[in-house]
Amino acid sequence: MSTAPPTSSPSQPALTRCGRLWRGALLPIALIAIWAAISAAGLVNPELFSPPQVVLHTAIEDFASGAVPFALAATLLRALIGSAIGISAGFLVGTLLGLSGIARRIGDPTINSARQIALFAWIPLLSAWFGNGELMKITLIALGAFFPMALAAEAGCRNVPVPYREIGRVLELDRLTTLRRIVLPAATPALLAGLELSLNIAWLGTFGAEYLIGTGYINGMGDGLGAYLAAAREFARMDRVIVGVVSLAVVGLALDRAVVLLSRRALPWSRH
User: Fold this and answer.
1) Residue 10 covered by a domain
2) What's 93's domain CATH number?
């Protein structure tokens, strides 16, 4: 007597995702509840740590007026432009270093020395070269994205398993075909890890550039979340400071989840 194999319900993946979302939301909900209780008990100065209802009202007000959406758009645009430049340059340089022993011996000492410099320590030098406008901000963001991707691409290309390279030699593949069909697919896990780290550092660099450097515009969209937070600090608007910080965290998390989703599609056997 044969029995049919068990089948999973079509809604099971959705239920699993909902369960994960709820588990992930437990800690933020608990922290908000503690925050509300402390504020209601009068244990903190509301001018230094605004109550949640005040923050919510400010968030609704600033989103409705467009202040936060326009600032988010400017920040995200800067981050994407700088990241695209830095990641592309890092990929090209890292691939060259990973494939060429001569290039590695020439370039590795300089790159490994430069990457030890804290990102914001570049600001005085870049300001002297480019001023405090958009070019300087984009360059700073690109620098933040460059080094993780360069190191990841170098490591990924250098650590391709020997049997894979031997397959290329057996098939008499030219260098470009070997790179495209063997080296880069084998280096994909390292490249995706470098992409995730590059985006994280570029996002932090974007906020730092906007907060520390000052004014500047991209397509008339304004100064970004960094300037929004700086203005909130100057006017002692702690409610707006919290709105800005939460907005940064949410967008940064969304970028990170996008890379994780890309990794799952590119590496379906991996778990994140």
Assistant:
1) no
2) 1.10.3720.10
In a domain, 271, yes or no: no
Instruction: Write the pLDDT tens digit of every residue in 204-263.
Output: 889 888 888 765 444 443 578 888 888 888 888 899 999 999 999 899 888 888 888 887
CB atoms within 10 A of CB 166: 11
Amino acid letter at 5? P
Contact 119, 144 (CB under 8 A): yes
Radius of gyration over every alpha carbon of the chain, rounded to an integer in angstroms: 24
**What domain range is 236 assigned to?**
52-266
Contacts of 90 (CB under 8 A, 6+ apart): 145, 146, 147, 148, 149, 150, 151, 152, 153, 194, 198
In sequence order, which residues have a C-beta less than 8 Å from that of residue 156 and are 6 or more positions away? 94, 98, 186, 187, 188, 189, 190, 191, 194
> Is 18 a domain residue?
no
The whole model's pTM is what? 0.80
Secondary structure (3-state) at 246 = helix
Nearest 5°: the CA angle 103, 120, 76 is 90
Does residue 39 lie in a domain region? Answer: no
Positions of E strands within the chain: none
Report the number of distinct structural domains present in the chain. 1
